[in-house]
Amino acid sequence: MSFELVTAGPEQTFRAGEGLAPLLVAGDVVLLEGPLGAGKTRFTQGLAKGLGIAQPLTSPTFVLMNEYQGRLMLYHIDLYRIEAEAEAVELGLDDYFFGDGVCVVEWPDRAPSAMPAGHLLIRLEHASESSRCLTFAAAGPRAEALLPEYMQALVAGAVPSRGGVSDG
Ligand SMILES: Nc1ncnc2c1ncn2[C@@H]1O[C@H](COP(=O)(O)OP(=O)(O)OP(=O)(O)O)[C@@H](O)[C@H]1O
Ligand SMILES: [Mg+2]
Fold this sequence. Notes:
The protein has a single domain, classed as Rossmann fold (3-Layer(aba) Sandwich), CATH 3.40.50.300. Helices cover 30% and strands 29% of the residues. The protein has helices spanning 10-20, 40-50, 85-90, 94-97, 141-158, and strands at residues 2-7, 29-33, 65-69, 73-78, 101-106, 119-126, 132-139, 163-166. It has an eight-stranded mixed beta sheet with strand order 3-4-5-2-6-7-1-8. A hairpin with a 5-residue loop joins strand 6 (119-126) and strand 7 (132-139). The longest helix has 18 residues, at 141-158. The chain starts with a strand and ends with a strand. The chain binds adenosine-5'-triphosphate and magnesium ion (MG). Residues 40-41, 59, 106 line the site of magnesium ion (MG).
């Protein structure tokens, strides 16, 4: 199953992240794919707010990972600058993926073999200068349970945007 959402500006992408946060449990992994400026960090900032994190979330580009304490720990990982997939393996990400918090990974496609099999994949694409198309896809039983819950939350008004549901 997959689900598509068009956001009309950065605030709506933020709200989409914020709306996901209450549904998350420890061990959940969210992978954010998409080109530079697609809104991956903006989505994560909303998610952080939804987890009750007051501290500003900045891009971890130079340190690869930042952690924040909210309702759950949030591990924000950005693999943009890794030079080889082995570098991601050396980070020992599994300790975070299967740990006590929620992981959000930007640029997971830089190290596909280091990503866990179970995850919620969000692909963000530019639809216009100020709109983005977000496509959500679930991998594994936990994400498959999470995605319909999230769709319901969005439809119930967590995000003031047109959402489209599609099979496939
Ligand atoms: N609908 C939208 N959703 C999200 N961001 C938007 C939207 N419209 C415009 N923007 C702008 O696009 C930029 C998105 O930046 P952001 O840092 O979130 O991208 P990113 O995907 O994390 O990029 P990078 O790969 O460099 O980390 C911001 O400047 C934001 O204001
Ligand atoms: Mg980013």
